[in-house]
């Protein structure tokens, strides 16, 4: 990482290649980072230098060294430098299912404004915002996930809204999706697999995992698409193998989820090498 200490001339993104269940990146942007987009994960991060500005829930927010970014799954946001000097940050993308394994069916915690100065969340996220080339042992990662879930719940406060959720049925639906991504999955299939009426299941799924069943399916296919790209597949081959109808269909979804095109995403990763 030493070669990145001085301000680079090109935007770059480094993805962790260490084993683990949480995707981690470190990046530097001189100005514009991402167009508006939505992840279906928690985005937990730390600004290392500069000002990391982003629109979130109708406000312009500014991440600076010392606070913690905690963006809720499926909430629209973008990313840009708040000053001319650019910004550098680390981010971890945490699958809500990992949080639900610990919370056991509670509504996902929400951090108001996507930023927190609470020391509990700062310390609980520390393991995931270390240098991306530092591996996390399996037990270390599991302990860190527990600490993060507890901090999110404590800092997020009491949830207002539906609290009686059928976690077991929603988890059966999620497991069915993970095993059958090659199919054209429908709510009727999920109703049958989960044993839960489809519209109640859909509402519970959103509350428990932060996104709709359809967007969850799409994101898993995009995950596969990205893995294939990194393995050297051509765009069109990776598109079809991941389950998309065609390249334009895939690209629309990719930009909605990551804020850049697949080609630009790859360029930033290569710039970091």
List the main descriptive attributes of the protein structure presented here.
20% strand, disordered N terminus, four-stranded antiparallel beta sheet, alpha+beta, six-stranded antiparallel beta sheet, Jelly Rolls, Arc Repressor Mutant, subunit A
Helix/strand/pairing category: alpha+beta
Secondary structure tally: strands: 10
Spatial extent as radius of gyration: 18 Å
Helix-strand topology string: EEEEEEEEEHEHHHHHHHHH
> Which CATH architecture of the largest domain?
Sandwich
Largest sheet at a glance? 6 strands, antiparallel
Whole-number tally of structural domains: 3
Q: Approximately what portion of the residues adopt beta-strand conformation?
A: 15-25%
Provide the helix percentage.
Answer: 40-55%
Q: CATH class of the largest domain, anyone?
A: Mainly Beta
Q: DSSP helix count?
A: 10
- Examine the coordinates and then state which fold CATH places here, giving the name of the CATH topology of the largest domain: Jelly Rolls
